[in-house]
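Budget justification note: compute hours in this period were largely spent on complex prediction jobs such as the one shown. Inputs:
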Amino acid sequence: MNALRTTALALWILLLALPAAAVIETYEFSEPELEKRYRQLSQELRCPKCQNQNIADSNAPISQDLRRLLHQQLEAGASDGEILEYMVARYGEFVRYRPAFNAATAILWLAPVLLLLGGAAGLLMLLRGRKQSPATLDSNDQARLTALLKTAEKDA
Amino acid sequence: MAPRLKLFLPLILFVVLAAFLFRGLSLDPTALPSALIDRPLPDFQLTGLADDRPLTRADVIGEAALFNVWATWCISCRVEHPYLQQLADSGVPIYGINYKDEDEAARRWLRDLGDPYLVNIVDREGTLGVDLGVYGAPETYLVDAEGVIRYRHVGVIDERVWRDTLEPLWREILALETMP
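Corresponding output:
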């Protein structure tokens, strides 16, 4: 009896927790293809308010608005390019996680390549420098070295 | 590279890094440049808050003005409200964009706290907000007499913001307007 009551209580609590999983609204799509694109685009569009989240993950009011717009535009038959252009015209390149290449975003795109090249160049120089200095001793030093080694042997 | 110089390499790296980090301390990472600077104020067909009269872009341009995006749910808007009133009293035309709000609450707010706005545009669904690239309230746009957006300020306007940032731009816009 007691076990039954505990199970019932546990189930009841579990039921209460369900709405928490459904905070972000869902949209109906006329075609599964549209839903796929919705998912893709909402992950690529960045929430302007909460800067390190995409609009799929964020529950900020502005993300809700942008998701609604995204759904509307997809259903209206807009292409991915048109939708991105629409968003960028309003929120700037910032709204895309993969911004278009232009003067302002060049450093963003090129910095990793430049850093890699710089690192490779540095490494190359370091390795070459090491190779170019083999241990060479002139006759004077050679004589001193032998003398030192001899004294060391005697001491031992 | 001279070996002496090599010795100082870590120090040089440290100084460069420290300079960047120090600069970062005074940058606001949430400040975004508006995509609409030097673009015309977007077209809209909405209504006025006071009398539900239809309003379009043509009704609110013609002279340089501030466009202030606000809502009763926005706490910072309450903070900046007295300063907006002060600006309005000193003769700066301010249009309100009542953003995703309830009309009744907004009217009560203006009754209780004073109304610095020439007209309030009701943007209940946030459509004008999206066209403007609004991502939170309060935001304030400087729009010139031609209806072109010249500047956007995100956040509260207080005396310091006005004096240091907005007023110089505002004077510039007014000066251009009076030029033949």
